[in-house]
Amino acid sequence: MLKIYWSELCPDCIACKANFDANGIEYELLEINKSIPVLKEFLKHRDTDPAFAPCKENGSIGIPALVHEDGSISLDWENYLSEKGH
Predict the structure, then answer these.
(1) In the beta sheet, which residues pair with residue 3?
(2) What are phi and psi of 3, to 5 degrees?
(3) In the chain, which stretches have pLDDT less than 70?
(4) Domains located in the chain, CATH noted
């Protein structure tokens, strides 16, 4: 199942969740602000996955971050919806 690292404080994350819900996309939300273990998982991805390189360069956090079933990570939820035909 698709996993999404997110924060309820992030407008982009809120928009992502609302659009996924409206389109019936199944996912597991991982709230980085409410769980230290989840935050540590996210930071491990952020520190090691090349998908986050642009975020680190421009000082953004990198959420929402979509972790696909194969373990790959993408940061463009709008493109994900487009690819799924939504």
Answers:
(1) 28, 67
(2) -115, 145
(3) none
(4) 3-83 (3.40.30)
